[in-house]
Amino acid sequence: MAMEQTLLIVKPDGVSRGLVGEVLARIERKGYRIEKIEGKVIDRDLAERHYAEHKGKPFFEELIEYITSGLSVIMVIRGENAIENVRVIMGPTNPLDATPGSIRGAYATSVTRNLVHGSDSQESAAREIALFFSE
């Protein structure tokens, strides 16, 4: 089992709905450690770099508008197999495909407003952590 770091973002709808504590509790109850945490409104430049792989897709502008629309809570999570396990805790991107016990299954309202983001690989975790927590 690999000790890993992953990036987790509670997006503006999760913050505005008061679900940050619920997300953190689920992560901590699973045995993961929060190494860094910061609340910030993500600016357009950072959002475009974060979602660079989606540039040119029909939903790109909606993604950018949403992630920059309010306060997000961004954190680095550490633990065994953190990348894959945090994604299981979050549930699939589409809340209609997510199990009721997952964060998205319980709380998300649409594919765009799906409450949370988590890195999907070691490469994206390293890139995203550097993007949001570069000193």
Helical percent range?
A: 40-55%
Distance between the termini: 29 Å
Structural class by secondary-structure content: alpha+beta
Q: Mind telling me the C-alpha Rg? A: 14 Å
List SSEs in N-to-C order: EHHEHHEHHEH
Biggest beta sheet attributes: 4 strands, antiparallel
List the domain count as a whole number: 1
> What is the name of the CATH architecture?
2-Layer Sandwich
Counting DSSP H or I runs of 4 or more residues, the number of helices is 7
Using DSSP, what is the number of strands? 4
Question: Which strand order do you get reading across the main beta sheet?
Answer: 2-3-1-4
Per CATH, the superfamily is: Nucleoside diphosphate kinase-like domain
**For the record, what CATH class applies?**
Alpha Beta
Mean of pLDDT: 94
What CATH calls the topology is Alpha-Beta Plaits
Proportion of β residues?
15-25%
Shape: globular
Low-confidence stretches: none
